[in-house]
Amino acid sequence: MLQKMLENVRMTNPLIHNITNYVTVNDCANIILASGASPIMADDKNEVSEISSLCQGLVVNIGTLNSRTIASMLIAGKESNKNNHPVVLDPVGVGASKFRTETVKQFLEEVTVTVIRGNISEIKALAVGKGRARGVDANIADQITEDNLSEAITFLKAYAEKVRAVIVVTGAIDIVTDGQTSYCIRNGHPMMSSVTGTGCQLSALIGAFVAANPDYPLEASVAAVVSMGYAGQLAFERLTDKDGNATYRNYIIDAIYRMTPDLLEKGAHYDIR
Amino acid sequence: MLQKMLENVRMTNPLIHNITNYVTVNDCANIILASGASPIMADDKNEVSEISSLCQGLVVNIGTLNSRTIASMLIAGKESNKNNHPVVLDPVGVGASKFRTETVKQFLEEVTVTVIRGNISEIKALAVGKGRARGVDANIADQITEDNLSEAITFLKAYAEKVRAVIVVTGAIDIVTDGQTSYCIRNGHPMMSSVTGTGCQLSALIGAFVAANPDYPLEASVAAVVSMGYAGQLAFERLTDKDGNATYRNYIIDAIYRMTPDLLEKGAHYDIR
Amino acid sequence: MLQKMLENVRMTNPLIHNITNYVTVNDCANIILASGASPIMADDKNEVSEISSLCQGLVVNIGTLNSRTIASMLIAGKESNKNNHPVVLDPVGVGASKFRTETVKQFLEEVTVTVIRGNISEIKALAVGKGRARGVDANIADQITEDNLSEAITFLKAYAEKVRAVIVVTGAIDIVTDGQTSYCIRNGHPMMSSVTGTGCQLSALIGAFVAANPDYPLEASVAAVVSMGYAGQLAFERLTDKDGNATYRNYIIDAIYRMTPDLLEKGAHYDIR
């Protein structure tokens, strides 16, 4: 199943419209290219409708949210809905400011989203209305462990059902659920949190996978999450004792570029609940 | 000839004012430094006139065009004209939205440009008024091949004459023409299209070369195009089977840093028509 | 002393609010992570007060200053003052435009800053009111050498006393002074100037060190400057004859990631005046 998802990205080369932050945008563009899809970044309200309609998918990321682009996000989201293009939302830092929380609330009211990806604190902020985010990182008290895994899945399934979207929560254990079926994914490496924007990159990658597999948003999201996590493992194996997070950043994107459908299937480490 | 162009960048260390996109801006700054020139990025309308007048050249790139910076592009362009500084225009994605098309049209009406660099779809959108751009990438139907090369050159020469600028079109074969003399350049590597912003980087590099060789915009542009393409070849040779587009991105800039006038001359692969 | 400063960054993992430029922002985020701190970039006036209050320190960098974020810088600065969080100012290119000069003047009037880091031309522009900046680089006529070192220190001590802040001037020799005690630091490598944003990265790093050591802004700044310079030396030693400024950029951040308190102490090369 994962193989087919990646094959479709490589074969259909979907064009992905990104309205994103200026911190990690270059890595997002390069990881989309590494996957076999193509990125376009455009955020002015005078053109986002046209740009979105040219594309096969939209990724909205509020990492450096500013007043100028909120209207653009809404216009692009609605245009994507009109064209039945998948919409991925990355609510970076939601809960850390009213501005982020209210913008995401409005976006979810006006736009139908296909996938929401965040860390557990961000998803809790969305679902419960009050987050404990530590800036753009998950609060340690929120972390998903083997002990609270069942509870977390139950919570995320309920939220996925409520918003009718695939929910992707990343952390030590990643969970992907559409409210019916849930995947617990144990790929990845702790050092990934020392690279800025691995979450943003994953959201961009989900955009590529879901646009290439529009009828399988759950499976496509799982394939993207496993790709990213397994790339983090493969990249870690290459590091010498002089390499740090900058080289690691490059090797993760390199590993997505070199990923094959077979390699992905073999490296996947998940169970379905 | 190419040797002299690069020597002049290294010797005169021109300061290049860039009004550019937030996706590839860091790579543009580093490739300008790699060439021996210095970059400054500034896009607020309250300072672009002063900044442009401090510099020896201007590069305007509309990759993430937004309403705020259109006025800045026009002010900086006019200031550069007043000071006889070369102006390089990279009309990223022109034809993909009315907003981009109209902005470029206005820029070309109000500012005298020295060089326009784009992919063939972008240049067609400018010349014919209607493009078939696929986002920021060239449309496959537009691609220049050995079969349509003569026809493409005739078309580009006519457009260069009309706008009185050097036209640089990059793709599998690169063409540089001032309307009289045309260079067909066969450096480069297909993998360059898997790195975001190699086109933007080339436009920045052209800015450095043309600013250092203001009386030779055609030859300076050719030297920049050959440098970029040959750097792409040298960088490719270094890749291991684990390296992907992120490492390749770094190696391309590294190769510009290590380029010598002799190496450039020896690696050049072009004919003049 | 330096050891303790780095240990505190690693142990307390301070959250650093950055209002910065879009050229070097990704490297700033990654170097903050490499040091053991965490970055958050947020620049909209609707949220900067909340974001700053969540953090332990603020870094304001005017590299691509624009009208939209000036208010944000002031709000975040005042909020940080209210919470007794350290504020680091990087007045990139001050003196190159009235817009930058006036913005920095206003910031210094309304916000109490803990550290100001710049090249010598920028600090002269601040102190004397008229700079000779060459864009974002120091003017060669301003450079600190062994010959004018005593004179430079006297000048910088007086300015530090006047603004009641730690002044960090980087160049071939780095000077850090609080007006009483001055450190002359001889770490670093000339090739660092061929990487865009090593100055910005250092300012971000100072933010991390000062936030983790709020009672020792002088010593924390020295530790950050030595870390950056020594990282530049260690990174240079790794370069092969094919590597250039892009690989060097990554290796510098890697070296910060791999820096240990012991290594830092051993590699430090400074005298106190």
From TrEMBL, chains A, B, C:
Chain positions recorded as substrate binding sites: 41, 197
The keyword RNA-binding belongs to this UniProt entry's keyword annotation: no
Gene3D superfamilies associated with the record: 3.40.1190.20
Keyword Kinase: yes
Name of one Pfam family that matches: HK
Keyword tags: ATP-binding, Kinase, Magnesium, Metal-binding, Nucleotide-binding, Thiamine biosynthesis, Transferase
Catalytic activity: 5-(2-hydroxyethyl)-4-methylthiazole + ATP = 4-methyl-5-(2-phosphooxyethyl)-thiazole + ADP + H(+)
Enzyme Commission number(s) of this protein: 2.7.1.50
Enzyme type, top EC level: transferase
Cofactor(s) named in the record: Mg(2+)
GO BP annotations, alphabetical order: thiamine biosynthetic process; thiamine diphosphate biosynthetic process
GO-annotated molecular function: ATP binding; hydroxyethylthiazole kinase activity; hydroxymethylpyrimidine kinase activity; magnesium ion binding; phosphomethylpyrimidine kinase activity
GO cellular component, one term: cytosol
HAMAP family: Thz_kinase
Family the entry assigns: Belongs to the Thz kinase family.
Function: Catalyzes the phosphorylation of the hydroxyl group of 4-methyl-5-beta-hydroxyethylthiazole (THZ).
Record's protein name: Hydroxyethylthiazole kinase
Gene (UniProt): thiM
